[in-house]
């Protein structure tokens, strides 16, 4: 680089850049004022169109808001020979329509993320800006076509990556790396799966991909819709501000449970029952159950019209039913088609008798009481919840439908011990709700969206993958996850298997192993677990120059709570957010210890602030969250809380990799074997020792 980052004492060119920032903000305010002044009273043809137009205009006005503490632009490109573009979160133009800031998603902005000394892409200079509270304070230049200038790591980029985190997840638009940008800008036609180690930014990449696709295919996605699926509501609250900061406000967010909320979930399955109910084999059991009520007629259908009687024999009716079954249509669509098929058979007889019936006659015949009676008897209505209720309550019915698919032991495991009286009184589990959703789709097709982002996908069961896949059957999907962080007994074994269940077997799989969040020492320590939890994955590395604060300390059994409190105090002396992570059965004791020490704390998903930065986090909810400093309580208890060793160590791997700047591990019980060496009774590294952690 030609020069280090310049301080605010520099008169030029920093003052010129500040002037451009001020002018750009003024231009953005003018754009918003112009939008607010638009009169659409007499533009629309009717009130419906007027409401749609007003809604779109209101969204436009909201997107033009000037966020005072968010940089309007974060970079600049000087192209060869003489073109300059400022790169920011949204497009801003002056009164003549000339661009003052170019949207980061525009093609002209791409070299900001991908240009290098080896491939300058016609960029003579790339400038990065440093900000504090929305004020431009520094800049840093790279002359990509100057052979005399050495290629070094940007200090401003490094500082932005390592900046303390308080509040919800922030966007990474200023720090997107080339390999991340390739994923963000991948086309909409193909589906994509991103295997990302902790700290590689996979969640942020997925959200920025949504923003990019909405920019590039706005009309198409406005019509078909977009959806972000997360693991829990705490996670969704954490990420919810990223897209609005990028000017996108129309993306729906939901958990898988919310997608399949046909029945109220009030019960829990055993791990064995949940595993079986989530198995892909259940799809065939349900398919059989849905069709089990279809029967063949024993009597002919006799339609009376005026003085004439038209007879369709039972064997011909059976042929029509068998034909519909063979076509494998949705159950509801086939049921709607059956009366028309019977009516057509009647019309053929009318024509043979010399009559000339038209479509109105066929529709009338299809509504005839005799035809309706045949349909009701042979192809009964299926209520999805009632069908699943029967399947899980009636051992004989389950045995018929699961014959050759589930073993007798598996059938016993999924049956309710005490069958409920009805749908309303049933204690449905989360896995049951997915089964109801599967039946609902077998009866009538689920609506498909244009694009779905599925985050933390490694934890889904095959049946849950199918539920998400139905929501993008005619669209595309971006799957985000980490096999090593799969913390359910049914966690996916491979992305190939997961993509097959999603209905996207041809999706490309990309792997991110270069970390930008987790400190080097922390990710190296956590990666000791990989041979046991995901031996096929590459170990992640970190580009962060700072090693981070890191300590592993043993405590006497009666002193652990006190040591945890002191570690939290030490972490609070630093800037940023602090997460105290512990096993579920340890949380009451940790909460009491914090309260006795006068330390207030937040629940997961609650937004941190400068005055409240400590969050008490159950290990089961830590996935996807991040904190500047993490205090990890009793690793052995976290691992032991899960139903099997692999899942327990995967849960621990998740918890170990939530730290951005520092990690303190405290334990009274022996550490899991992979983590025990070379850390003995006490070993402390980094600044945590100086802080007394």
From TrEMBL:
<keyword id="KW-0378">Hydrolase</keyword>
<dbReference type="InterPro" id="IPR014016">
    <property type="entry name" value="UvrD-like_ATP-bd"/>
</dbReference>
<keyword id="KW-0347">Helicase</keyword>
<dbReference type="InterPro" id="IPR027417">
    <property type="entry name" value="P-loop_NTPase"/>
</dbReference>
<feature type="binding site">
    <location>
        <begin position="196"/>
        <end position="203"/>
    </location>
    <ligand>
        <name>ATP</name>
    </ligand>
</feature>
<feature type="domain" description="UvrD-like helicase ATP-binding">
    <location>
        <begin position="175"/>
        <end position="519"/>
    </location>
</feature>
<keyword id="KW-0067">ATP-binding</keyword>
<keyword id="KW-0547">Nucleotide-binding</keyword>
<dbReference type="InterPro" id="IPR000212">
    <property type="entry name" value="DNA_helicase_UvrD/REP"/>
</dbReference>
<protein>
    <submittedName>
        <fullName>AAA family ATPase</fullName>
    </submittedName>
</protein>
